[in-house]
Amino acid sequence: MKASGAFGLAGVAWRVLRGEGVRAARDRAWDRWLEVRRRRSFRPATAAPPGFRASVLNVAAVPPAPRLGGVQAQLLCRLAAEAERRAVALLHPEPGGGYRLELQDGRRRHALAIPGGPLAAVGLADPAFEAAVHQAAEAVGSRALVVEGLAGLPLGSLLRLRQDGLRLLLALHDFSAFCLRPHLLESTEPPRFCAYSRDAQRCLRCLHQDWPEVAVGFQEERRAVAQELLAGADTLIFPSEFLRRAYLDLFPALTTASAPARVIPPSSDGRRRTAGRDRVLSPVHVAFLGGAQPHKGALFFDETLVALAGAGEGLRFSVYGGGGDWRLLARWRRFPSSRVRVRGYYRYGSLPSLLLGDRVDLALLLSIVPESYSLVLDECSSAGVPVIASALGALAERVPACGGLLLPAEAAAPDLARLLGALSRGEAPLPAPLPCPTPSSGDVAAAWLALYSALGLV
Question: Which pLDDT does position 333 carry in this prediction?
Fold first, then answer.
């Protein structure tokens, strides 16, 4: 088993090196090491240290590791800022089974192991998860749960914990309450946005692609449980007005009275903002942000490269972001005239400096599913790089305020190719980037502390 595991890791490393390059592989390895170092900074304990009390218990389906995505990265930044002002407790599953309860109070860090099995991918209820939450809440004196996203968590168990007397604050980052696929990317060929499908048979066919155990009626039952859970929460926290409105539309029984909601935008990074580069009138270097991920528009970008053909001869492209379809990465690396460079995975918070160092003139955010906020837009703004984005989700509302251009939701690759060609020839003006109003991690922590205070939790 050990040998096969080693060969598996070697295979992944080789794919990363071939598809994304040495710098991406280095960044991946460095982030892994930082995770190990952070984990070791918590002293193992069998009980909470004397005097440790946390009025709220944060619960997440995965550890707060930046390599896992923006939700986990912003959670790590926020909890670090909160820990400077209050005692923080975070419960999450361990990869091999069981749970880890991390306690922070200033510089004190302790970790407790709590027994339990691995979370089921599909089940609505998990008694072991409920027992672990109760044990963790009792250990630190918590009266409320802050649930950091619903993806990967049993909705029925969360509802039962609420019925057991624990107050619920639900931080909603995507569409996990509506579907097991949190980004609503339908499993078709090619993949597409399901447009909030409510067709039971269509949903069943899609879910069966990855979860064969899903039975007839599962989606309807899950959505009914989700609606009861949302309506019974003490408050719902959204990253954007778009996602708040979307939830009110997707769950008709919800009202602002039955489910009080707050909008607290996340922090893209706790570091100092970067000064933008000098203004350019026509783009030469264009960045596609999303790697080879289908939901981030990788196929749209690929089709745009083909559609450009002889147009936009002066343009060159860089691809930032890791993972996805390795065949696409290889295709881009072999693209004619070497016009495409694959930078691949990058460390969270480093994008502004990368865009500046590589002298990027324009960024493409081509998600084919609705983004709930887009931390990447904040990072482009901090580097002074204008964007072209799909007019979906929160991007449709945020991009104009940040000085970018919107593509109609129905736009195809030839439309984007024509726009890029016109921009490169100076026939259309390149938008001037405007500073996006983005909070710091300290601002976000203060907003959460104010919420706890308003609910009588601190």
Answer: 83
